[in-house]
């Protein structure tokens, strides 16, 4: 499979090259040259297949033979070593829990998959690769965990000092081995700027093979299509049309769902559930795409004013606005509405959601006002990752899961930096 740049000013390339580069040389996002639907027998018998069989069959065309089948099977198996249960909320709404991985957010799957692909490509590469990543919280933990112990890969994570939760900081700073944390005196945008600067710094790129691990990387983006298949497998016996409500920030997850749909998965409709960051909501009503600075909310992993994957969504719909509108609805909710939804889920259905899942639930409810389908909202993080908000709303203590408990007592190890020069010195030493 070849991949092309959505800016159309860079040569087509291989899966391996696209993974190592992250972004194409013309700064465009990579996109697969073709998406061939799976045979209908695949979906007819999906309930008889294991998750790893489903995932392997679904992603194979994008990766084999660059990664041989047997190795891809192992990568898929290692990546998916936890559960993806669907929990019924009421007759018309279910949730797909994506938080059973090691860092308890859905980003685990993409990060683990990408780490293993890079590890494979790097077996034949004598030079070490340095993965440089800025995080506002969840990405860093998932990347750190996913890449832990991968040979030939060093990971450097920049996070804003005092701006991530205690749990998130522990997830970034306590692993050791090939994972290094840099605590930046600044906000997330400062971390992001330093990373961008590093990628353009010739002195650095001459001496180090730098790569990124953010959601634009195809090896993080594509495996997210598995979720939609796992949900379908569990809900097929309902014999009802299925729509997905996806709490969206950079729109990578929902966009992967649309790839699953192209592969033939019968999905009736997508709902992009947003917080106050409503760039796409506005676009869907005005056709004007106007990126804005991000607004801080209680569902902070979705505080994105210029969702980078939206261009992939347009490409998947042949840049045809009417076709997109048929397939996607987008709604925006305030923090107060989100809190009310959290409380309703708890009081009425005895379900403890996190703020992102609560936004997804709101999206499901809005869509159901005028449509007769079964809506699955994705629960993208475990509620304890947003303990302050959740406990405050439901007025109850939530117990820490074992993955989190285990790291809370570990010693933090991070290097404090307050300028780009500090970062450069750190990388070159
Ligand atoms: C990253 C993240 C999102 C947003 O996902 P996108 O793929 O960027 O749209 C939603 N919820 C949680 C908990 C996240 O960490």
Low-confidence stretches: none
Name of the top-level CATH class of one domain: Alpha Beta
Give me the number of helical elements: 20
Mean pLDDT across the residues is: 94
Q: Between the first and last Cα atoms, what is the distance in angstroms?
A: 38 Å
How can the largest sheet be summarized?
6 strands, mixed
Summarize the structure.
This protein has helices at 15-21, 40-44, 51-63, 69-79, 107-122, 138-147, 166-173, 188-200, 202-207, 218-221, 225-235, 252-262, 279-286, 310-316, 321-327, 335-349, 355-368, 387-394, 402-408, 420-428; strands at residues 3-5, 30-32, 86-88, 93-97, 129-134, 153-160, 179-184, 209-212, 242-247, 269-274, 328-332, 374-379, 415-417. With 429 residues, the protein is of the alpha/beta class. The strands form three sheets. It has a six-stranded mixed β-sheet with strand order 3-4-12-9-10-11, with helices on both faces. A five-stranded parallel β-sheet has the order 8-5-6-7-13, with helices on both faces.
